[in-house]
Amino acid sequence: SADARAAIDWARRKVPGLPVFAMGISMGGATIIHAASEGAALSGLVLLDPLLDTADVFARGGWIQSGLPPALFAPSAWAAMRFHGFPGGEQQALDRAAALKLPILLLQDPDDPVTRLPVSEDLARRNDNVSLWIAPPIDPGDERLAFKGRWGSHVAAFQFFPAQTVGQISSFIDRVTAAAKPPTL
After folding, report:
1. N or C: which end of the chain has fewer CB within 10 A?
2. CB-hemisphere CA count at 13 Å for 86?
3. Mean pLDDT, consecutive 10-residue segments, the chain of 185 residues?
4. C-alpha angle 156/161/164, rounded to 5°?
5. Coil, helix or strand for 53?
6. Which stretches of the chain are DSSP H helices?
7. Please, is 10 exposed, middle or buried when counting C-beta atoms within 10 Å of its C-beta (0-12, 13-18, 19+)?
């Protein structure tokens, strides 16, 4: 998050007076959430299949890499948070994002096996500043997903639905910047 804050500060210096948005994909989503919660000056966040629940994603990632049941990775997730500084509890991205006051666009694949829809829906329920767009479902048998294995449709919305994904992001940025402008007489 320190690197993200430094990049955001650099952008602010380069374009003073213009809105600055940060987009984070998967773990990058957690990174910009942490940066924003630590004071990065942003106009809004765009999150694509963000890592929100540390333990859940850790367990799901273990399954994806090994094929072993996610429950077997719960002790490792606990140890990573307890002994190695992985953010858990109120320090994880979900809880930090729930407390943010800036506009957030959350783009979520409904069948993402890693960063799952129920967690994104939880964030949208907890924070009125979150606009949740659930991408259309992707057929798990689609040949364009074959190379991803168990990663499935994780971060695939743009690949499968580029016009809709870009449309959601553009509309969000337009709404946020229009709301921030003083009315003209």
Report:
1. C
2. 18
3. 91 90 96 95 96 92 91 86 80 94 97 96 98 96 92 93 97 93 63
4. 125
5. coil
6. 2-14, 27-37, 54-66, 74-84, 93-99, 117-126, 157-160, 162-180
7. exposed
